[in-house]
Amino acid sequence: MNQVALRWAYANFGAVIASLETLPTRTICRLVPALMLSLMLGACGGGGGGGAGGSAALAALGAAAASAGTGPSTDAGTATSTDTGTGTEIGDGSGTPAPPEIGDGSGTPAPAFPWVDVTSAAVQGQSNTGYVARNDAAQVVVTLPANPAVGDVVRVQGAGLGGWKIAQNAGQAIDTKSVEGMAGARWTARGPTQSWYTVASSADGSKLVAAAKWGRIYTSTDSGENWTVCTATPPCEADRDWTVVASSADGSKLAAAVYGGQIYTSIDGGANWTARESNRNWFAVTYSSDGSKLVAAASGGQIYSSIDGGVTWTARESIRDWYAVASSADGSKLVAAVFRGQIYTSIDGGANWTARESVRDWYWVTSSGDGTRLVALESGGRIYTSDDSGVSWTARESNRNWFISASSADGSKLVAVEEWGQIHTSSDGGVSWTARGDSLRWNGVASSADGSKLVAAPNGGQIYISTATTTRGIGGSISGAASDTIGLQYVGNGMFTVLNHEGGLTIQ
Description:
There is one protein chain. The protein has a 16-stranded antiparallel sheet that branches. It has a 6-stranded mixed sheet with strand order 1-3-5-29-30-7. The two termini are 47 Å apart. By secondary structure, it is mostly beta strands. Helices cover 12% and strands 44% of the residues.
């Protein structure tokens, strides 16, 4: 066997894998035979030239990719890899340059993507470069490029026992949705200390509204980093007994209800408010995604619906101790809960209702965007989920003092809080749950449509926000062990996204 060829293959294994992973599986299956044949010719043929034979292998691989006529992989749920680095790859020590990467199928070879062996404890990362962490004694810290361009890529491959860590610069963060699935692992306190009772979120999680028990309404337009107190008259000329707030998908239309008072609506993100309906013991209010339809529930009263943004209302169903109501995105499917009563569902916007499940101390309900996946909380009991718009229900989790819950648009990512306990998250539609955060008197929680941003409000404390990202700035990082890998791409505004990963990564 040609020893030079073996050394070349070993040194450039990362380049080969990086080249292959940019292609669809079908194309890889067509290219591997060509690669193996070229390597065998270079390694086993008469005479030396193993490095040249290896170079010919990747050249043949690039040619095969071009003839296959395939472009970069576009697997759903991940960004397309666009490795476009420059420089010289790791060679075999013979002076022979490493081969170029595979092209994109257009016939034009892709620029070289250099891989750098790192045996020291730290290295300053460069754009469009891969790093092989080979330190057996210490963790290799790869600091992200300070001034990357949109589309730049950085990759890290573990090879040494010390593992690796990606460190960030000031203002940088890494979107970890593809790794963690949803927010909830890390929480940060923001805003003023209040007796918070309710909070709601826009679909993208950037616009928030919260209200304090016997306090004021507050809004945020930067995912909870900063909060502005309402000064509009009405309703913010005095403290009120706010029980619930709701938001349209874009965050421009808001509703807030007062126990023993009226419902207030805003069409400008909370700058101005208008009093609606009558004084009642309002306990719940919900919006359709466009904000045109509202449904509100009064404890010891009826359910009320509006199809004109809250200007006029129609009384529905009977007088019961209504505690909660939720709506599908289009407002056609509704679910409501009666404390010490049953759950009720409607498929016609509230005109008719059907009793579901058993009599329990129902406290809150949540709906997916299409109205098929529902969640109901029993105070002092369990969490119940339904995948058929409330026809059948399954008990989940343990008996706790559940208070409120929220759902992603597809109903797969859920968050529920205990009034005196922890925050609990589920990324499988409620089948399994993970306890998060501190034990506080949680009274409010909300989620973005994709579950990547969560906000929770305790009665007596600050508002807490959680995002499926690393902590922004130098305090954030991602770490991996010897066999772990990761690929990152810069998407702008200080944010990197995970292109691909392997192994049990640690995120801070």
